Amino acid sequence: MFSVEDIYFILLFAILVRGFIDLIFTSLPLLWVIGKKLSNFLENKLNRIRRSMATRSLRGGLFLVFLILCAVTLGMIVEFLQGTPYFPDVVTFISFYICISFVSPIKLHYKIYKLLENTKDNRDKIIDILQSVGMPISRVARNKEVFVRLSIVSVGYSLNRFVVAPIIWFMLLGFSGMFFYVLVMSSAIALPRNENFDFGWSSRMTARLLDIIPSMVTALILFVSSWSSFGARPSSVIRSVKKDVKNTAGYGILLIQSVISGAVGCVLGGMSYHWYIDKHIGELWLGQSDDSAKGKRHQLRSAIRLFIVSESLVILLVSLLVSTLSI
After folding, report:
1. Where are the chain's structural domains?
2. Angle between helical axes of 119-132 and 144-159 (0-180°, round to 10)
3. What is the pLDDT of residue 160?
4. Cross-strand partners of 52
C-alpha cells in the first residue's frame, strides 16, 4: 500500500516527466481530450431541440450524474490497483499524467505571441489555437488587441485548470475528485452555450463551484509570482482585484482574470459568455483603464513569463511537501 509520501513523490515525478514530454509533443492531457469528446458525443445523443426545457435540463442533470459515476469508478479502480502488486506506481503516475499539463500551454501561447508579429497573415492560426484551448472567439475576429487580451486571459485559465485545480482536488478528494474536476470542467468548456443552455446548466454550475477554491489558490500564486516575474506589476494587482471584487467573488476564473490583468497592466474583458460565465459578467472590463492598458503584444509576453514563474512555484511547493512528508 502506498504511503502519502510515495503518492506525492509520484505526483512530482509525473509533473517533471509531463514537462519533458511537452517539450517534444504539444498536446493537451488525455483525460481533458476524452472529456471533451465524451461530452460532445452524449450531448448529440441526449440534447434535442424539440424537447421541452424541463426535459433538456433533466437530461443535463443525468449527464452530470454520469460524469460523477465515471470519476468515482476511475478513482476506485486506481485506489484498488494501488493495493495490488500489479504496477501500482505506474497506475498512479498515469493518473496524474492524463490530468496535468505544464509546458504545452506555454508553447501554445508563445506560438500565439510569435504569430502576432503578423496578425493579418496568421489570423486563422491564432484563432485555431485559441479555440483549441476553449476560448470564446469568432472565426471572423480580426482585431489584434482582441487576440492579445484573449491570450492573456487564456494564460491564467490554463494555469488554473491544467496545473493548480487538478492538484487541489486530488489533495481534497483523492483521485476521484481530480477526475471529476477534469471531466466536469472539460464538459463546461466543450458544450456551446447558445445551443444547450438548459442541457449544460448542471455541468456549468458544478464547474463554477468546483473552481472556487482552486481559483483562489491560483490567484494567490499569480500574485506571489508577480513579485519575481520580469515585466509584471504586483502593485497593480490589489487595485485591480478590489475594483471588481463584488462581481468576481462568485466566478473563480474572473478572479484569476482580475489578478493577471493587474499583473501585466492590461484591461481584460468584454468577452462573450463562456464556460460557466454569464453574459452580463463576461462583458465586464477588469483592471485599471488607461492608454497603456490596451492589449499589447509585450503584455502577452509578460503573462507567459508570469505563467512560467507560477509553475516553478507550484513545483517548488510540491517538492517541499514531499520533503516534509519524508522527514
Report:
1. 4-326
2. 30
3. 94
4. none
Contact 170, 14 (CB under 8 A): no
Give the model confidence (pLDDT) of 183-225 as tens digits: 999 988 887 655 557 788 888 889 999 999 999 999 999 988 8
The residue ranges of the chain whose pLDDT is under 70 are 1-2, 48-51, 140-141, 192-196, 229-235, 238-247, 249, 269-273, 278-295, 327
Number of H helices, E strands in the chain: 15, 2
Cell of 149: 487580451
pTM: 0.91
**C-alpha cell recorded at residue 22:** 511537452
C-alpha grid cell for residue 244? 471588481
- Which class for 21: exposed (0-12), middle (13-18), buried (19 or more C-beta within 10 A)? middle
d(CA 102, CA 52): 42
Q: How far apart are CA 166 and CA 169, in angstroms?
A: 5
Q: To 10 degrees, the CA torsion angle through 99, 104, 106, 109?
A: -110
Our CA dihedral for 261, 262, 265, 270, rounded to 10 degrees, sits at: 30
Question: What per-residue confidence (pLDDT) applies to 291?
Answer: 45
pLDDT of residue 234: 62
Q: Which among 244, 273, 278 is positioned nearest to 261, based on CA atoms?
A: 244
Listing DSSP states for 57-113 in one string gives HHHHHHHHHHHHHHHHHHHHHHHHHHTSSS-HHHHHHHHHHTT--SSHHHHHHHHHH
